Amino acid sequence: MSWEKDIDEIKRRRDLAKQQGGSASVARQHEKGRLTIRERIDGLLDDGSFNEVGEGAGVPEYDDTGALTDFQPANFVLGFGDIDGRRVIVGGEDFTLKGGSPNPAGLRKSVYAEQLALKYKVPLIRLHEGGGGSVGGTGQEKNRRPLGEPVFSTSRFVPLAETLGHVPVATAALGPVAGLPAARLVASHFSVMTEDAAVLIAGPQVVKRALGHDMTKEELGGPQVHLKSGAIDNLASSEEDALNQIARFLSYVPDNAWQRPARKSCTDPIDRCEDALANIVPTERRQPFQMRKVITHVVDHEAEGASSFFEMSRKFGPSLITGLARMNGHAVGVIGNDCMFYAGAMTAAAAQKLRRFIDFCNSFHLPVLSFVDEPGFMIGPDSEAAGTIRHGTAAISAVLQSRVPWASIQVQKAFGVAAQAHFGPDAYVLSWPSAASGALPVEGGVAVAFAREIAAADDPAARQKELEDMLAASQSPFPRAEGFSVHEIIDPRETRPKLAAWLDIAQAAQTDAPTPFSATMRP
Predict the structure, then answer these.
(1) What angle do CA 405, 406, 411 make, to 5 degrees?
(2) 4-250 and 275-439+476-508, same CATH topology
(3) N or C, where is the chain less crowded by C-beta within 10 Å?
(4) ∠ CA 299-300-303 to the nearest 5 degrees?
């Protein structure tokens, strides 16, 4: 008696699984300019590192004698692998099989991906292209469930939520993504979509049937929709670019919430002083400037002078800049106001973006560098209708509950309640000579406080300008530095050396063993 027949059967099933949906389905995938899930995994991971889990899972078909006649593999591919030598879990729907709509084993494997990441405390990567449950059910004809299985019938959402507080999760939309895969896509710390991808709660046919709107997938949930909605962080020019962005994101974070980010070697001198910073802020208060240039001048420069700054969610809440960078090799979270949008004011969207980003930094022990040019909450009827004050206060609460080191560089404005969102607990505060702070910006405050005096003047405009110039002097950073309301007023060119020295001290003081943050990040 020998087991060779069974061993041959194992090999046969593995070979069938490698065929995915068959040569015709694979060819159709390539005709669309898209990779298959196995090609995506190979493109993401270090060569030869993929260790597949559940390769033999699927839907078999047998003849009357009990012999296997066909085998449809689970349409979710899953396994361990390495990225730059770091262990990760990676998985994704196989669109060549039923358009990625889960069969029973595929659904179980998708949940198991999260369970594996939690068990082994390693980053989780999901590469999405697929639909959710089918009204026709899943599995063989005799087991068909007419209305599908409710998502709440099992605890599959528990590990989905737990991963956000325990391990880094990065996801990509690489085609149409709907239903449960769309929920998994946004349940992440970083998400990216390609230009031809679409993220949908329900597809065009369902929307037309329910609401009468005749729209394409792209109109419903393409990049032009979800980069601005905040559902997706970044756009990729190609699948290769999406995979590279995921790998870059992971380079800034630890494997799990029980570790701190690894410090990388830094060849950029910590005493580098950029002359461009001295006059990057115009002396005329109303003239805009480029905060991204400030950030890139300060943070580490890497190979061939490229900035270490990796921006996230640029199109959502655009008055606030968020991203990751390195300072003297340390990974840091970076926030800053972009005065090119709403003068940098905090909108409801910017507040949501800030709250989520600070929760992320807390989850993985990333110090925060805050470049401040905050005129206050956005005002007006649209801002009131959006609930800006509630979202803004929630963002401030997240900042004040954070437990990572903060350094705040007051570049220009810091006004009103919203300014508090840029100064974490016990923040190290540096001020540039261009800084101005107070309860209100001079331009708005003078018009309100001196309304009668201005109206009674022979030349109201001249009197208002005179009052503004007089009060602007009181908002200078020099009196605050004299009273030690800020730790130091500095030459802008000193920003990098000051921050590098502070960060070395702050990180050396983090002697307690890191643990997950109690306020788990939510999508």
Answers:
(1) 160
(2) yes
(3) N
(4) 145
Average pLDDT, the chain: 91
**What are the sequence ranges of the domains in the chain?**
4-250, 275-439+476-508
Are β-strands 488-489 and 436-438 bridged in parallel, bridged antiparallel, or unpaired?
A: unpaired
Secondary-structure percent of the chain, ordered helix, strand, coil, rounded to 5: 40, 20, 40
CATH of domain 275-439+476-508: 3.90.226.10
Indicate the Cα dihedral angle 372, 376, 382, 387, nearest 10°.
90
Residue positions counted in the chain: 523
Task: Quote the pTM value.
Answer: 0.91
pLDDT digits (tens, 9 = 90+) for 156-200: 788 999 999 999 999 999 999 999 899 999 999 999 999 999 999
Cβ pair 328, 507 in contact under 8 A: no
Inform me whether the pLDDT recorded for 139 exceeds 50: no
Q: What is the DSSP letter of 96?
A: T
Strand, coil or helix: what is 306? coil
**CATH number of 4-250: 3.40.50.2300, 3.90.226.10, 2.40.50.140, 3.30.470.10?**
3.90.226.10
Q: What is the 3-state secondary structure (H, E, C) of 38-82?
A: HHHHHHHCCCCCCEECCCCCEEEEECCCCCEEEEEECCEEEEEEE
Q: What percentage of residues in the chain have a pLDDT greater than 70?
A: 94
Q: Tell me which H or E stretch contains 125.
A: strand 124-130
**Closest-CA residue to 376 (of 407, 335, 412, 347):** 347
Between helix 291-298 and helix 495-508 the angle, nearest 10°, is: 60
Write out the H or E segment, with its range, that includes residue 436: strand 436-438
Q: How far apart are the first and last CA of the chain?
A: 56
Secondary structure of residue 174 in the 3-state scheme: strand
Cα distances (angstroms) measured from residue 223 to each of 127, 153, 252, 340, 503: 16, 32, 25, 22, 37
104-120 and 157-166 helices, crossing angle to 10°: 30
The enclosing H or E element of 110 equals helix 104-120
Tokens coding 57: 């899972």
- What's the pLDDT score for residue 146? 44
